[in-house]
Amino acid sequence: MKALVYDGHRSVRWQNVRLPFAHEGDVAVDVLQAGVCGTDMCAVRDGRPAIEPGMTLGHEFVGRRRDTGQLVVGNPLVACGNCRNCLRGKAHLCLQRVVIGVHRPGAFTGSVWVPESRLVPIDGASLEQAALVDPVATALHAFRLAPRPEGPVAVLGAGAIGLSLLFVLKSHGIGDITVTDLSGERLDLALAAGADRTGASADGVYDVVYDTVGSVATRRDAVLRTIPGGDAVLVGLHSAELQVAAGPVIGGERTIRGSFGYTDDEFREAAGMVSRLSTDWVQTVDFDDAEAAFHALLAGRSDVRRPKLQMRMAR
User: What CATH code would you report for 2-132+279-312?
Assistant: First the structure.
C-alpha cells in the first residue's frame, strides 16, 4: 500500500509498503484522516526525534477498526506498563516509550496496526475535528501542568498547538488571554477563536505563559514574562536549546515546566471536546497531494491562515 515515509534526507517520499506484522494485542485500523504534527516536521527537518529512514510517519489520526467498523482515534503513546513512571501513573513519560509514527509505522498510509488499549471511540465529530484530538490533548496537558491562573495568561504562537491551547483555556473558563504570533493572519484566527488581545510579542506580566513555538527567544520570553512565582510551560519544539538567565528564575521563584504529550485520561477527555472545535484553521488535502503539501510546509510555503495540514485517505 502507498505510504508517506521519511527518506533519511530531510524530506519525505511516497513508497509502497506492506502492512507490517502485528504485535500482540494490535488491531488493524483503516485510516480516514491524518494530521501533520510539529513533531513530524522536527523529525524530518532537524532529526529530533531521530527516525529511521523508511519509517511511515503520522501519529494524529482517525480511522475505522477493521474488525468492528467502529470510528476511533489512536493514542500514539505506547507505554511498557512496568517502569517507574508507568507505576507512578505517568505512562506518557514511560522510560521505554514507543510512539506510533516515530518508533513503529504510523498513519500516513492506508492502514495501521494500533494496540487495542490505545484506541478511543469517537462520535459526533467531523474527520477534521477527530484528527485534532492529539493536539487538543497536548494543549489540555499543558494547561493542567500549571496551577489554574487567577490573572492574565499568554500563549506564544498561534499555530495548531497555540490555537488548541486557546480552545482549552476558553473551554475551562479562563479569561484575559493574550496570544502572540509574527503572522497577522494567524492573530486574526486567534481573535476569532476568543483571544482577548493579540500582538507580535507579549508585553505584559502573566500568571502563566505557554510557549508553543519553542524557539530560543520565545522560551526566554515565556520565563521573563511570568509574574514572580508564576509558571512558564514549554510545549514547542522548534529549537534544541533553552537559554534563560538564572537570576529571574531564582530571584523570582519562577517555575519552568516542560510539557510532553498527555495522559490517557486527557486523551479521552480531548476526544469528547473536539466536536466543539472550529476547524477553520485546518487545510485538508487528498492523500495523493500530501507529499507536495508536506514539502511546502518544510519550505515555509504553506497557507499561514491554515497552520494545520491534514490528509484525507480515499475510501
Answer: 3.90.180.10
Unique residue bearing C-alpha cell 530571584: 251
DSSP 60: E
Domain boundaries, the chain: 2-132+279-312, 135-258
pLDDT at residue 196 above 70?
A: yes
Q: In angstroms, rounded to a whole number, what is the distance separating the alpha carbons of residues 237 and 313? A: 28
> In this structure, are residues 280 and 303 in contact, taking their beta carbons and an 8 Å threshold?
no
From the number of C-beta atoms within 10 Å of its C-beta (0-12, 13-18, 19+), residue 194 rates as: middle
Query: Top-level CATH class of 135-258?
Result: alpha beta
DSSP conformation class of 56: B
Helix, strand, coil % (nearest 5) of the chain?
Answer: 30, 25, 40
- Tell me if residue 49 falls in helix, strand or coil: coil
Q: What is the pLDDT of residue 315?
A: 65
Residue 22 DSSP symbol? P
Res. 96 pLDDT band, cuts 50 70 90: very high
What is the number of other CB atoms lying within 10 angstroms of the CB of residue 295?
A: 15
Same topology, domains 2-132+279-312 and 135-258? Answer is: no
| 3-state helix/strand/coil string of 91-152 | HHHCCCCEEECCCECCCCECEEEEEHHHEEECCCCCHHHHCCHHHHHHHHHHHHHCCCCCCC
| Amino acid letter for position 228 | P
Give CA angle at 136 (131, 140), nearest 5°: 155
Q: Which helix (H) or strand (E) covers residue 41, if one does?
A: helix 38-46
H or E element that contains 170: helix 160-171
Residue 105: name the closest of 58, 61, 175 by CA.
58
- CA-nearest of 80, 105, 109, 81 to 21 is 105
